[in-house]
Amino acid sequence: MTRYLFTSESVTEGHPDKLCDQISDQILDELIKQDKNSKVAVETLATRGLIMVAGEVTTEGYVDVQGTARKVVREVGYDKPEYGFDFDDIAVLVALHEQSPDIARGVVKKEMGAGDQGLMFGYATDETKELMPLPITLAHKLAMRLAEVRKKKILDWVRPDGKTQVTVEYENGKPKRVTTVVVSTQHSPKVKNKKIREDIIDYVINPVVGDLINKRTKFHINPTGRFVIGGPAADTGLTGRKIIVDTYGGFGAHGGGCFSGKDPSKVDRSGSYMARYIAKNLVAAGLAKKVEVQIAYAIGVAKPVSVMVNSYNTGVFSDEKLTKIVKEVFDMRPGAIIKQLKLLRPIYRKTAVYGHFGRNIFPWEKTDKIKTLRGYL
């Protein structure tokens, strides 16, 4: 019998890095609404009193970048000067230029090539109904609940910035219980630490993790004792700095590329979505209990340079045969991925918080290849 602990974290939409992800993806959505063939690679930086948006955009559309950035900041909840970061009192600098023609040459052609070289990973496991690892699933749900109690004014002292972390004990590869929960939330200066701890346990942790905690579970609520100054006023945010939060919480591998602010011709994004789609369908079809899929591309080339399936010895077939099946069933050329997953739509702002995987509102979470895959059994 083997036991180990595994920890994953999430952050709320008011976290400075996630604020930047949302601004980048909102700009992408606005452009795709007008021109579905927009080529977008937008990066956002946020710090005290300042947002800077930079990158490459080639489009027939138009976006009010300053207005869009302020809109996102307001919707996230930074709408009062006392929060230290206020949508109505920030400078927004814009430095956008067109995509390099050298890159466009490889992408804009009869058969779309990959927008860059790179390697992407997808992962799925049968340990939750979402076919996601339990630690990151719980961390996201805690972060979502933290936002919910703020927005619905269930806890009127909670402010936008926050982080969650969950440690799960595994026994023989199966999750057994939650050993530690960490919640750090920005708060009003008037609320006492005792009330913060009691409220977070009662209104955030228990409703989400209740069945998996016991008397031995440790809670660390605002461990530093004070979190009044938060968001970009406390910590500079950048697009793409929460790539493990965005994916599987540390399970599986990561190719290194972020998602937000990139149109789907960038395989960092669309290739990762396809890899998750493949992995989830393999597990849902019963071909393995746990799967990691790697896809790799060369810039300007449509077909992947490599495809790999790792079933961690849980597959009904060898990994070599599972890889062969994947190549037969799934078309992994960028143009085919975009068509299969319907990626030329303004769906990206929603992906920018609480993970790109595990929620059925996204097309790459569909398990519509089960019947085809079970045909190989």
Structure commentary:
The structure is a single chain. This protein is an alpha+beta fold and about 375 residues long. Helix 1 (about 15-35) packs across helix 2 (about 65-75). About 30% of the residues lie in helices and about 25% in strands. It contains ten helices and eleven strands. The strands form three sheets. A four-stranded mixed beta sheet has the order 1-6-7-8.
Quickly describe the structure.
By secondary structure, this protein is α+β, with helices and mostly antiparallel strands. The chain is built from ten helices and eleven strands. The strands form three sheets. Strands 1-6-7-8 form a four-stranded mixed sheet.
Tags for this entry?
377 residues; alpha+beta; 24% strand
Write the layout of secondary structure elements.
Layout: E1 3-11, H1 16-34, E2 39-47, E3 50-58, H2 65-76, E4 91-97, H3 101-107, E5 118-125, H4 134-151, E6 158-171, E7 174-187, H5 193-209, E8 218-221, E9 237-238, H6 243-246, H7 267-284, E10 290-297, E11 306-310, H8 319-329, H9 334-340, H10 370-374
